[in-house]
Amino acid sequence: MIEEHRIGEFTLITLLDGIFLCGTEMIRAAASEEGAELFKSAGLPASGPSPEPINAFALKRNDELWLIDAGCGRELGPRFGKAPEALRAAGYTFDQVQGIILSHLHEDHVGGLINEDGLALYPNATLFLSEEEWAFWTDATSPEQYPRMAEAGLFRLATSVLEAYAGRVTALPANSEVIPGVSLVPLHGHTPGHSGVQIRDADQQVLIWGDVIHSTLLQLRYPDWSIGFDVDPQQAVRTRERLLAQLATEDTLVAGPHVTGIGRIRSCCSGGYRLDLSRYQ
């Protein structure tokens, strides 16, 4: 089933790339009594893990077709890399995609931009990302400063992607409008230039919040629980806490690469939050 949502004249299409298992080895604070209670409340073993999606998104308006992130490609094995197939199933071809907005350059967001030969999968698309994100991944000193990321091949992949789209990469200042109605939102911490994507039309708005949340089960209830992939865990926590507190007072819809469905953030349970999907399923 293809999940679509209308935001004014925009159509937002969720492209499921695969399901990953988010356990205590990723969110270490969940190896606790509180974590066990959350896992059990979802019908899972007390030690987890929790199945979570990896999504990319297609955004359509009139004859324009954009992507927001691109999935894993071949980076995480055969259970992933399904976003391109989902795009085709929705009735679109790769050459129709004119732009791809990237929340950040981790492998589950950019691996799907290139094929097995390292060539651009979307031949007519320009990549858009924040200036801070571009600077981090293209800084020759970054692999030395973050050796674990270098050993995992993350800088190699980012370089391959940027080279495949050479001449078609645009780095934008924070809060920039990419196209009318679609803007970057700085949500730094997970990576130095990590961004959300705000979509507005008429009186409707959706925030695709990137990797602010990797597990709605765990991190909405305990926003101070970091995941091991955060480049700056303290900043990521501050960003998440600030954003959730703001969203709980607004009518903004939220979606994410690791969120199932679309809904609104509501306060609950003494310092925690929940995602209210009831009107959008």
From TrEMBL:
InterPro entries named in the record: MBL_superfamily_lactonases (IPR051013), Metallo-B-lactamas (IPR001279), RibonucZ/Hydroxyglut_hydro (IPR036866)
Keyword Membrane on entry: no
CDD domains, per the entry: OPHC2-like_MBL-fold (cd07720)
UniProt xrefs under Gene3D superfamilies: Ribonuclease Z/Hydroxyacylglutathione hydrolase-like
Domain of life: Bacteria
Domain Metallo-beta-lactamase positions: 53-258
Keyword entries, A-Z: Hydrolase, Metal-binding, Zinc
Family to which the UniProt record says this protein belongs: Belongs to the metallo-beta-lactamase superfamily.
Protein name: Glyoxylase-like metal-dependent hydrolase (Beta-lactamase superfamily II)
Species whose genome carries this gene: Paraburkholderia unamae
